[in-house]
Specification:
Catalytic activity: ATP + protein L-histidine = ADP + protein N-phospho-L-histidine
Distance between the termini: 46 Å
Order of helices and strands: HHHHEEHHHHEHEEHEE
Keywords: ATP-binding, Kinase, Membrane, Nucleotide-binding, Phosphoprotein, Transferase, Transmembrane, Transmembrane helix, Two-component regulatory system
Shape: elongated
Helix content: 55-70%
GO molecular function: kinase activity
EC number: 2.7.13.3
Strand order of the largest sheet: 3-4-5-7-6
Protein name: histidine kinase
């Protein structure tokens, strides 16, 4: 019974929200018509139409989020000029949805009204006995003029209550069908959004590659190259002083040897930053185990990957895990971290979860944005869940083929 009451409450809430959207649609329909008339006066019609379109998009996006599974938004950007708006299929489809939702508002209110109408049927016999005989009593258009007629209201009330319980399902199905038919992006809109996404992804990858090349150049110039120059100078000075001052020459050779070791170490670290040797030798699982062992915070591993992936995918997955783990260690004040790799055949799911203080925001730091840019090159996605007080979970999905 409790489950049924909860379901009835959810249905009632859904109907009320649908009615509210329908009322807003009823207000936007005449505004849209007025804005289209104003388009005959472009200096005035353009801003008004843009304002109405923004309101309509916001209302339509609200409906897209309510329908399961969620419908993607077809809009490539903010409203443009009058000619661009009128040429968009999404504008006219949204207008059609407004008309449909305006009608759905009346249906939703009718379905909601079934509950009080059904309950009224149970009290009609009592009202007939208690109210004065000269007072006209009507139930759903049926005059109640006798005791048998008042009793007929009871089974009618039962029918109305049964309809009130099951009608929301039919309403939700019809509303979802309407939304999917009109609010789902067309093939052309999906193709346009896909092209725009690929352009943005390509630009981000090119920028990231250029930044990485500049970093490598800077590290080589300031680190290994400087040490090699000093090493060359020490060797030359040692060669000049070898006959006149063998002791000083030996000291310079020792310094040169130490400088060579330092340069080799820096080159090794630089190469490891480009492609870790552990990743090439032992694959993603071994590299993840090495990350966990090097972490100052205890890391629990859930590694469900039994095959080697392509080198670019492994590299991207490794750096996602490394960045997410570094963020958890540096910012989360965590006492325990869980890192998982799950092979789902066509995609790789990566998770890093910590029990820290939460509050991570990808818009405030470069680490999470870097993860998103790295995954964007592979059509991957990253989701960050980090309520204040924790826990924080970074989940990345990376297509990897079957």
């Amino acid at each position: 019974m409790t489950k049924r009451r909860r379901r009835a409450a959810r249905d009632a809430g859904h109907l009320l929200i649908s009615a509210g959207l329908g009322l807003a649609a009823q207000g936007l329909l005449p505004l849209t018509a007025f804005a289209l008339l104003l388009c005959l006066l472009p200096p005035l019609g353009g801003p008004v139409l843009g304002f109405v379109v923004r309101l309509t998009r916001r209302l339509a996006d609200t409906q897209r989020r309510r329908i399961g599974p969620r419908i993607p938004s077809p809009y490539a950007g903010p409203p443009g000029r009058i000619r661009e708006i009128l040429a968009e299929a999404a504008f006219w489809r949204d207008a059609g949805w407004l008309a449909g939702q305006a009608v759905a508002c009346f249906v939703a209110m009718l379905v909601v009204a079934l509950w009080p109408a059904g309950l009224q049927g149970f009290v009609i016999p009592l009202l007939y006995l208690l109210l004065p005989a000269d007072l006209e009593l009507v139930f759903q258009g049926m005059p109640v003029t006798s005791t048998p007629r008042s009793l007929i209201a009871v089974p009618l009330g039962v029918v109305l209550l049964v309809a009130a319980y099951f009608a929301p399902r039919a309403f939700r199905a019809g509303e979802a069908r309407l939304a999917r038919r009109l609010l789902t992006p067309t093939a052309a809109a999906r193709l346009s959004a896909r092209v725009e996404q690929l352009v943005e992804t390509r630009t981000a990858v090119v920028d990231a590659s250029a930044a990485e090349l500049r970093r490598i150049e800077r590290d080589l110039h300031d680190g290994a190259q400087a040490r090699l120059v000093a090493l060359t100078m020490n060797l030359g000075m040692a060669e000049d002083m070898f006959d006149s001052d063998p002791g000083a020459a030996r000291a310079m050779l020792a310094d040169a040897r130490a400088g060579a070791h330092s340069a080799m170490s820096e080159l090794r670290d630089l190469v490891r930053g480009i492609h870790p040797p552990m990743l090439a030798d032992r694959g993603l699982v071994g590299a993840a185990e090495a990350l966990a062992m090097a972490s100052p915070v205890p890391v629990d591993l859930d590694l469900r990957l039994g095959r080697r992936l392509s080198a670019p995918v492994e590299s991207a997955a490794y750096f996602v895990l490394a960045e997410a783990l570094a963020n958890a260690i540096k910012h989360a004040v965590a006492t325990r971290i869980t890192m998982s790799i799950v092979d789902e055949e066509v995609r790789l799911r990566l998770r890093v979860r910590d029990d820290g203080r939460g509050g991570a925001d990808g818009s405030l730091g470069t680490g999470l944005r870097g993860i998103a840019r790295r995954l964007g090159a592979f059509d991957g996605t990253v989701t960050v869940t980090s309520p204040t007080g924790g826990p924080t979970e970074v989940e990345a999905v990376l297509p990897c083929g079957s």
